[in-house]
Write a structure and sequence with these properties.
Helices cover 36% and strands 12% of the residues. By secondary structure, the chain is an alpha+beta fold. Helix 3 packs across helix 6 (225-235). The longest helix has 24 residues, at 2-25. Keywords: Ribonucleoprotein, Ribosomal protein.
């Protein structure tokens, strides 16, 4: 028994010594008595520099052609002609609002979705529904029923839409002779009416369910109509020539008979 115990002790000592020598000569990738550590997210200034490098490497789309032309050519011309003291006084296009009536399509879900899809293709932005504010029995109209679509364009999408409207949409209009220069509202804003949505190349004539017109309101920062007209004409808006300006007449004041009620009494 003593001999067997001595042999077992020698074997156990040899096993432990060989395991320790093997571990010291070839260390394990993850020690058996330690848990693997997780990578922590970068914080502080190092994280901001990494984000900036990613943004620089990302490809950005080129700016709209009309915007580049406005900043490079139109702004100096307007500043010299109207004698602006500061570049911030030069008028610019602030936003473009496109309205479209849907008519009977409000009662049909498929026609309403088709109208939304068409206006989204034209403007590059999904429109919102405009609803009736009150019920009108003569038109079979209830309060809250969608009666039209509207979309407000700003920034690069606005410049792209104006470029396609001026160079592609308006010239394709039937019997087009130019837009009316008297459609300004007196505050530098201009309104255009388009009878058919098929004048834009994005809409195919075969896929049109029903013809819909639209109203386009171009809002500028100009203080007068003459400044706004000059801005839009430099952008390429084809104004009709030979149209006489509209004479704005003052409204006559309505006489209230109560003012003369006791004037001639004795």
């Amino acid at each position: 028994m003593a001999e067997c115990g001595r042999i077992m002790a020698l074997g156990l000592g040899f096993y432990q010594s060989s395991f320790t020598n093997f571990n010291t000569q070839i260390p394990l990738a993850i020690p058996w008595n330690k848990k693997p550590t997780r990578r922590r997210a970068l914080t502080g200034p190092l994280a901001s520099t990494v984000v900036e490098e990613k943004e620089k490497t990302a490809t950005k789309p080129p700016p709209p052609k009309l915007k580049v032309e406005y900043l490079g050519k139109i702004v100096p011309v307007l500043k010299e002609e109207f004698k602006y003291a500061n570049l911030l006084q030069v008028p610019k296009v602030e936003k473009v609002v496109v309205n479209c009536g849907i008519g009977e399509a409000a009662q049909n879900a498929k026609s309403l979705e088709a109208a939304i899809r068409e206006l989204s293709l034209l403007t590059g932005q999904r429109p919102v529904k405009t609803r009736a504010k009150k019920a009108i029995a003569g038109f079979k109209l209830r309060e809250g029923v969608p009666v039209g679509l509207a979309v407000t364009l700003r920034g690069n999408i606005m410049y792209n839409f104006l470029d396609r409207l001026i160079n592609l949409g308006l010239p394709r209009t039937r019997d087009f002779q130019g837009v009316n220069p008297n459609s300004f509202d007196g505050h530098g804003n201009y309104n255009i009416g388009v009878r058919e949505q098929s004048v834009f190349p994005e809409i195919q004539s075969d896929s049109i369910g029903s013809t819909r017109g639209m109203d386009i309101c171009i809002t500028t920062t100009a203080k007068t109509d003459s400044e706004a007209q000059k801005l839009l004409s430099l952008m390429g808006m084809p104004f009709r020539e030979g149209v006489a300006p509209v004479v704005v007449r003052k409204k006559k004041r309505r006489v209230n008979p109560k003012d003369f009620k006791g004037r001639y009494r004795k």
